[in-house]
Design brief:
There is one protein chain. 50% of the residues lie in helices and 10% in strands. The protein is an alpha/beta fold and 448 residues long. Strands 1, 2, 3, 8 and 9 form a five-stranded parallel β-sheet that branches. Helix 5 (155-163) links the parallel strand 4 and strand 5 (168-172).
Length: 448
């Protein structure tokens, strides 16, 4: 990379959960179908028409006309891809067209946008492998870079990600983590420096995502010229600007009438024209740049709310109880072979279900409120726990708890027997060892 050149990483998250229908207490044990098909199809078709399809069309046009100078990255969850296949297959086709330009990188993440990295390593790995295979099957790319659900990251999670075969991870450039440092550099994981860490410039990202159409914002209206001016005014020593956004920002959160599509088009063209700026994918960045230092994140961070922590999903007792109850069945799911139960298990893990139970107010985490199907967090909690109760009943018919307990007891009994045998053999060996020297002494006496 040329001296003084800044790399712009434009990354989009694409995710939609399978929403549950109103699932009453009296449905438990009587009706095993949990999903609001009408809402899922309606919402998906609406967002596809307003956001995904027009934005993909715009990006494809730019990619085809800018001779490899424009690059972009995506992270699309497995359950979003499943919904595209069900309700909007042309969205899959449009992403395939983007992939064929050779200028688009697909990142890996958890299949169902789950919080498994906080709870169970084995389930987390299973989710990631499932997602990776989906990306390979649909787009012919094996992801090299990881983006965890909601950009959740810590030193331990990062080290685990490297062990799983990824060489970089995207996360939030949280102020309380960076302190005086800038997010506009490449960093490395504190536990394993071989994992590179790309940190989101949340101010510039949120200027587009959240503030673009806010007429009360001091910088309104935001133009491509103004935004590029901000990029050029950054410290010349800074090497990267990571613009990480939800894809729904284009056409959904910021409607077409706001001028968001025109802004994106002109922004891309202006960056390409600037000699001091260039677009790069995450993989290109970690190949071209040298890390400046370690970034220490002892406790998990995310890109949600002002706090940049986990409280949007695990901030109250309802959320924690639902989370613990869900993963209490993980051992039974490990031996479950039912495709239907595995599908329900994946959908139940989506972080959105826990977000709907959040009791936080007046936070920037209101991102998902426009698609929250529940009137209150308490209603969301009760609905989820009803679904989970029925799911556990179904699971009990395939892998009963009593069988699992019996298997565990039998395994414990065998371990105890083996331990006793090992101790007995060790004692026998010690006796033999003590006997041998004594025998040699008596033989020497006879010879004399």
């Amino acid at each position: 990379m040329e001296q003084g050149m800044k790399s712009i990483c434009l990354f989009f998250q694409v995710h939609q959960p399978f929403r549950h229908r109103r699932y009453r207490f009296f449905d438990i044990g009587n009706d095993h179908y949990y999903y609001d098909d009408y809402a899922n199809e309606t919402i998906m078709r609406n967002i596809a028409d307003k956001s995904y399809l027009p934005t993909n069309k715009l990006l494809l046009n730019l990619l085809n006309n800018l001779n490899g100078q424009f690059k972009v990255a995506f992270s699309i969850t497995g359950i979003a891809l499943e919904q595209f296949e069900l309700y909007a297959p042309e969205v899959i086709d449009s992403f395939r067209e983007l992939a064929q330009t050779g200028c688009v990188e697909f990142l890996s993440e958890t299949y169902s946008h789950s919080l498994a990295s906080l709870k169970d390593k084995a389930i987390f790995e299973e989710q990631v492998k499932l997602h990776e295979q989906k990306i390979i099957d649909l787009f012919g790319q094996k992801p090299k870079v990881f983006r965890n659900t909601e950009m959740i990251y810590s030193d331990d999670i990062g080290a685990h990600i490297y062990q799983m075969g990824y060489n970089a991870i995207l996360t939030e450039g949280a102020r309380h983590i960076l302190g005086w440092k800038s997010p506009n550099f490449l960093y490395v994981n504190a536990n394993n420096p071989r994992l590179k860490v790309l940190m989101r410039n949340y101010k510039l990202s949120d200027d587009i995502s959240f503030r673009f159409s806010n007429t009360n914002w001091s910088e309104y209206p935001l133009t491509a010229e103004k935004f590029v001016g901000w990029l050029k005014k950054l410290d010349p020593k800074e090497e990267v600007v990571n613009l990480f956004l939800s894809y729904e920002s284009f056409g959904e959160r910021q409607p077409k009438e706001s001028g968001i599509f025109s802004f994106l088009e002109h922004l891309v063209k202006q960056v390409v024209q600037e000699k001091s700026l260039q677009f790069s994918t995450p993989s290109e960045m970690i190949e071209q740049l040298q890390p400046v230092s370690v970034v220490s994140v002892p406790h998990p961070i995310s890109w949600a709310d002002e706090e940049r922590d986990l409280t949007a999903w695990l901030g109250n007792e309802m959320q924690k109880e639902a989370f613990d109850k869900l993963y209490a069945v993980s051992k039974r799911m490990a031996v479950c072979t039912s495709p239907e139960l595995k599908k329900d298990w994946n959908y139940l893990q989506a972080s959105d279900h826990f977000y709907y139970m959040s009791t936080k107010f007046f936070s920037s985490g209101e991102v998902q409120n426009y698609v929250n199907p529940f009137d209150s967090p308490y209603e969301a909690f009760i609905n989820y726990m009803n679904v989970l109760s029925d799911f556990k009943m179904k699971l009990n018919t395939v892998t009963p708890e009593i069988d699992l307990e019996h298997d565990a007891a039998e395994l414990h009994r065998l371990i105890v027997i083996k331990d006793q045998k090992i101790k007995k053999m060790e004692a026998e060996l010690q006796r033999i060892h003590k006997r041998k020297p004594a025998k040699k002494k008596t033989e020497k006496k006879k010879k004399s």
